[in-house]
Specification:
299 residues, alpha/beta, Spermidine Synthase, Chain: A, domain 2, Rossmann fold, seven-stranded mixed β-sheet, five-stranded antiparallel β-sheet, 12 strands, globular
Length: 299
């Protein structure tokens, strides 16, 4: 028997999934977690009622989050991941042949444990890779405590919601901490909220904030079917500009590194970094950076 699970994306707009089986339903100390089998998208992870990843198209999101930044870097060896509890971001990072160390810090031990048990199609054993270090804790606090610097930092956290675990990972203060923990020539990549027209302001504010902390910031996006909307990402660096690479160079680097990707290549790179006018205008008109004292709350 199938049941309907409706995800409300913004007022007046929702996406409904046909759920064949709910394998996990748990209120953790940080969020409401559900792992379901759906008829269209396969196994899916929901947090606080929002779709996070779906088996049949999660590669679109995770390849888009990781590889534009890591392919733009000449040879990333050390990577810090904030969030990414289902392990798919870690999986994609570890596909880069130069990576020797990947530190993943997620605040919710239940999310990581249930991912290990029920989301093997997502992490594909990445948690047990000898190059991986999985830490349970607050990613911001973890960076503040360490003197280690990384070639790349990937932020794959949930939406910034009131009282949630992630809203202080979208602020100018945090982005300055991130910059202090990047090696010279390092790069940051992050999920940067929806770029759907009615709610593009959140993405614009994130990009505006990044530009207060980094000299080179790129906005890009791709459509993720399970999300029901185009999703925004951003990179930031003191030296690397992924948007400056053409499609032929992307294809050459993919081949040189022996990667076989389902979504990201030279053609999709050109599409993802060709932001539509309304997104560019929203970024240009963003009024203020996001700060700890005045955070961005998505809903």
């Amino acid at each position: 028997m199938t049941t309907a699970q409706t995800v409300h994306l913004w007022p007046g707009y929702a996406v409904t999934f046909n759920v064949e089986q709910e394998l996990v339903a748990r209120q953790t100390p940080f969020q409401r977690l559900s792992i379901c089998d759906t008829d269209t998208f396969g196994r899916a992870l929901f947090l606080d009622g929002k779709i996070q990843s779906a088996e049949r198209d999660e590669h679109i999101y995770h390849e888009s989050l990781v590889h534009p930044a890591l392919l733009a870097h000449p040879a990333p060896r050390s990577v810090f991941i904030a969030g990414g509890g289902e392990g798919a971001t870690l999986r994609e990072v570890l596909r880069q042949p130069s990576v020797r160390r990947a530190v993943m810090v997620d605040i919710d031990p239940d999310a990581v444990d249930f991912a290990r048990q029920h989301l093997h199609a997502f992490h594909r054993g990445a948690f047990d890779d000898p190059r991986a270090e999985v830490v349970i804790g607050d990613a911001r606090a973890a960076l503040e405590r360490t003197n280690e610097r990384f070639d790349a930092i990937v932020i794959d956290v949930t939406d910034p919601i009131a009282g949630g675990p992630a809203y202080l990972l979208f602020t100018l203060e945090f982005y300055r901490i991130v910059r202090e923990h990047l090696n010279p020539g390092g790069i940051l990549s992050l999920q940067a909220e929806s770029v759907a027209g009615p709610i593009v302001g959140g993405h614009a504010a994130i990009v505006r904030t990044l530009r207060e902390a980094f000299p080179i910031v790129c906005s890009y996006a791709t459509f993720v079917p399970a999300f029901g909307e185009p999703w925004g990402f951003a990179t930031a660096s003191d030296a690397i500009d992924p948007a400056s690479l053409d499609g032929d160079e992307i294809d050459a680097r993919v081949a040189q590194r022996g990667l076989t990707l389902q979504h990201y290549d030279g053609i999709s790179h050109r599409h993802m970094f060709a932001s539509p006018r309304y997104v560019r205008e929203a970024i240009a008109s963003a009024a203020r950076p996001i700060t700890d004292a005045a955070p961005f709350i998505a809903y």
